[in-house]
Design goal:
256 residues, mainly alpha, 2 domains, three-stranded antiparallel sheet, two-stranded antiparallel sheet, 12 helices, globular
């Protein structure tokens, strides 16, 4: 059964969110309604299509891949069944009586931010929460905060090394990368996800090299947010190539 969820005003300017296509953004918000209170949902493209985008001419698998490639959601498997999880879901949704319907691994528990939820009963305050009752937090009033936790957009501490120069010196960076430039560093998983999502780009590694060279001349703020800057640029390039290919063959375009 679908559930009522809260939408934080800072979502609309969150870098990971704005880097995906409009339909992917709509699907992402709709997925929250399909999640249990721990941030997991059944990975069933057909059900998600019928529940969230029933009237849209959209490829739900491509949209899910786009969201996964931008680290909005993750797909996982337990005992042969496919599930999905929303990053930091438990940090922003605050049901009074949380109900868990789907199994989660320790990695998924960390991904959805369950540790922050459990700390509400302790002495440490939990930042950037979404109230679901009548209380109004400062974040909900001014809308100035993005979906952050300690400065990483939609990321937990386990992946902070991806932000390059903004990474904490106390964390040990991953030793191996599928692509390692002066600014851009992609793990095997991120590299393969991006290459699959932006499949229209003929020489994907060359495009990354060009982006990395461009980023070296940009301000530190943009370099620190290279993951989202690069994914946005790759998405634009991907869409331009697809549009040019359609125009060349003279194929019909379907308005959504």
């Amino acid at each position: 059964m679908a559930r009522i969820r809260s939408v934080h005003p800072g979502l609309w300017t969150d870098e990971a969110f704005v880097c995906v296509s409009p339909l992917a953004r709509l699907l992402f918000i709709g997925i929250w309604n399909e999640c249990d209170d721990m941030g997991s949902f059944e990975w069933s493209p057909l059900k998600l299509k019928m529940r969230i985008l029933p009237a849209d001419n959209a490829d739900i698998n491509e949209l899910l891949s786009e969201l996964a490639g931008n680290n909005c959601i993750v797909r996982y498997e337990i005992e042969g069944r496919q599930y999905g999880a929303v990053r930091n879901f438990a940090k922003y949704q605050r049901p009074k009586k949380p109900n868990s319907l789907y199994p989660q691994t320790p990695e998924i528990l960390q991904w959805v931010g369950t540790e922050a939820r459990s700390s509400r009963d302790g002495s440490e305050p939990v930042t950037h929460q979404f109230p679901t009752d009548s209380e109004n937090s400062r974040q909900m009033e001014d809308g100035g905060d993005k979906m952050e936790d300690g400065g990483d957009k939609m990321e937990d501490g386990g992946e902070k090394e991806r932000t390059g120069k903004g990474a904490s010196a106390s964390r040990t960076p991953r030793p191996d990368y599928a692509f390692s430039g002066k600014v851009i560093r992609l793990t095997d998983q991120d590299f393969e996800n991006w290459r699959a999502i932006y499949h229209a780009i003929p020489d994907f590694r060359a495009e990354l090299t060009s982006l990395d060279s461009w980023l070296t001349g940009q301000p530190a703020e943009k370099q620190n947010g290279w993951f989202h800057v690069a994914s946005g640029s790759l998405n634009r390039k991907h869409q331009e190539i697809l549009a040019a290919s359609k125009a060349k063959v003279g194929g019909p375009r379907i308005a959504i």
